Each structure stands twice: as C-alpha cells, then as structure tokens.
Amino acid sequence: MTVREIKKGILSVGAIDWDRRLFDELIPLPDGTSYNAYIVMGSEKTALIDTVDPAKEHELLRNLEEAGIERIDYVIANHAEQDHSGSIPTILDKYTGAKVVTNAKCKAFLMDLLHIPEDKFIVIEDGESLSLGDRTLEFYMTPWVHWPETMVTYLREDKILFTCDFFGSHFASSELYANEDARVLEDAKRYYAEIMMPFRTNIKKNIEKIEKLDIEIIAPSHGTVYRRPSFIIDAYKDWISDKVENKVLVPYVSMHGSTREMVEYFVSALMKRGMKVKQCNAIDADIGKFAMELVDAATVVLATPTVLAGPHPAIVYAASLAAALRPKTKFLSIIGSYGWGGRTVDILKGILTPIKAELIEPVLIKGLPKEEELKKLDELADRILEKHRETGIA
Ligand code: FEO
C-alpha cells in the first residue's frame, strides 16, 4: 500500500488486508478489510491516529518511512482492539518520544492487552482538545461503537472526523474514498450488522453527539473514507431506527427432508401473502448475510429437525448468534419435525430470550408432514401477516 494524501499534511498510512477471510475467528470477510491509520501534521506536532493489526505493522512502518515521518509526538488510540492498537508497541519502540493519547478506559485496556507502560500515556477527557500547532484534535467519547472505551477524534480546522470502527466496513479497496453506491452500502451494512447492531441505543446517542460537529469527511479505520458524511450517517439512522420490513427470515436445517418440506410449504405460504422471505440454510450460511437480514426483518422463524431431543446444533448456533446480535426483530416462531419427542421449543425459547420479540405459537410436526398438517403452516403464515399488519408494515 502506498501513502495517500487526504489534504496537505493529512495522510492515510494504514494497511489493506486483501487476503483476510475471517475476523475474530467468527466473521467472514468476503472482501478482505483494511486497518486505516492517519498521520496529521501540525506546525509543531505530528499525530498518528490509530495503528494497524500487528500482522500488517511492517506495512505501517514502510508507509511512515515512505511519507518521511521522522517524528511522531502523539499516537491517538480511538479504540483498544488489537486490529487498531496492536502496532502501538512497535511505534513506541521506533518513535521513542511518542505518547499514547487516549481516554482512561482505553488506557486500562491497552495496559492489560499490550502491556504498554503507564508513563507512555496522556489521558484525555470527553471534549478535550490537543494542539498540534496550527491544527487541533478534539476527542469525543462514543462508547459502545464496538467496546465501552471507543472514542472519535475530530480535526477541527479540516473538519475531519476519525471514527475508528464507527461507520467502518470490512472492505479492501485501492480507492481512498467511498463510491457512494449500493456496493459500498452493502459492505457497510454487513459491518453494522456484525459489529454494531447490538449497540443500537448507544449508536443513536453517539450520532446525536457527533452531528453537533461540522463534519466534511468521515475517516473510519476500516474500509473507505466518506466525503459526504450524510451518506453513511443516514444509512446508520435507518438501520438503528425501530422500523422493520414486511420480511420473514427463515434459517433452517433438514436432515431427511421433513423439515425441508415444511420450509418449502411455509415459505410459499408467506410469499402468497405478500411477505418478503429470506430462506437460509444454516449448515453453510454466510453468517454476515444472515446478520444483514436480521437488521430489518420483522420476523424470524427457525426451522429445525429434532436431534438428540433438541434443535439441530446448526440452528442452536443461528439462534445464539441472533440473540447475541440483539436485532430489532418483533416476532419469532419455530417450526420443525420430530420423531418421538424432544425439548426443541423450550431450548430455542431460552436461547432467544435476549431478543425482546413476541413468540408466535410454534408448529412442530411428527415425521414427514401430512397434507392436513401443512395447514398449520398456513395458519402460522396468517398469524404473521396479521402481526405485520398490526405493526403497520403490511
Ligand atoms: Fe476494528 Fe473493534 O476493532
């Protein structure tokens, strides 16, 4: 990666990770990612905003060298997660006069996670500023735009907001700036769904806070930079709103075809009633796409066979993931087949508790469904439509 200039004295010096395919050993990265770091040069001091994942620190060092950066006075740590902070120790080794500027919570994390010595820190408070000479950095706490210590850095004179994870996307691109198109929005939505969705309430407060600033550019530490902040801010406002779509997400597993037959009948019943449906096989689902559907689906219906007296483990995983992501789903139900009994409904109900949704009466059928038993799925589709109508979305 080469150094890219945003403005004179403001450089993007991070790394593109074209090949990374998994984040946190959990999240698929079909389009790779980037760890953006930024140099801001003032007339007196130079700051580095965030660093890169340790696997890419050689690229950061090379870029700093290419940019001719001989002195770094401040390393701003907006977030302690290692994909942004992991190269701070190396930067401190090379630029021995540098201090890490961050909030108290982030400092504690960095001392625990990276063993950075206490005397290397300058601790700042919400709203505090730091002069670089003719440029000024302002710091605003934006907790839970991934972790509790997350903050953003605002470059006052140039009206640039450095947001780290907030408004980011896992998207490796040679372009510095985002093309404001559906493709960019899809990556940003995927990222929101996987990383930010559990923190909707905090995000709302944080957007209200940053909107008081006069922002011309949003520069996150993953993905591309936004020259029109409203493009990404408005998308976030839509995702975090209470608005849901007239859509039913149906994650399913079938072992011998009984549940599949139910799913096919049920999906068709939903479609006949004018609802959008996303049927997704939990065995090989892209969990990023699954998470994206959870952003706005009004209803989720889990479909599972009974395995060893409970739901199929792949459906347990889908339910656990949905519960962890805490989507704004309004209605839940369960369908499936069994041979001789089991606790499928109770187990899934327990897992799904964190989703504050209404459970619509599940439909469990013994063995391969008979013609008259499939009518229960029509009744379930009717009840879902009724609920969607009551919600004003159908
Ligand atoms: Fe990109 Fe929460 O780290």
Structure description:
The chain is α/β, with parallel strands linked by helices and 394 residues long. The protein folds into 2 domains: 4-240, Ribonuclease Z/Hydroxyacylglutathione hydrolase-like (Metallo-beta-lactamase, Chain A, 4-Layer Sandwich); 249-388, Flavodoxin domain (Rossmann fold). Helix content is 35%, strand content 25%. The protein contains 12 helices and 23 strands. The strands form 5 sheets. A 7-stranded mixed sheet has the order 1-2-7-8-9-10-11. Strands 17, 18, 19, 20, 21, 22 and 23 form a 7-stranded mixed sheet that branches. Strand 12 (129-131) and strand 13 form a beta hairpin. Helix 5 packs across helix 7 (229-240). The protein is elongated and about 80 Å long. The model has no long low-confidence stretch (mean pLDDT 96). The site of MU-OXO-diiron has 7 residues, from helix 2. MU-OXO-diiron binds next to helix 2.
Bound molecules: MU-OXO-diiron
Level-2 CATH architecture of the largest domain: 4-Layer Sandwich
What distance separates the N and C termini?
Answer: 49 Å
Number of domains: 2
Please, what is the average pLDDT?
96
**Beta-strand proportion:** 25-35%
Spatial ordering of strands, largest sheet:
1-2-7-8-9-10-11
Rg, alpha carbons: 24 Å
Per CATH, the superfamily of the largest domain is Ribonuclease Z/Hydroxyacylglutathione hydrolase-like
The count of strands amounts to 23
Q: State the helix count.
A: 12
Q: Judging from the principal axes of the Cα atoms, what is the shape?
A: elongated
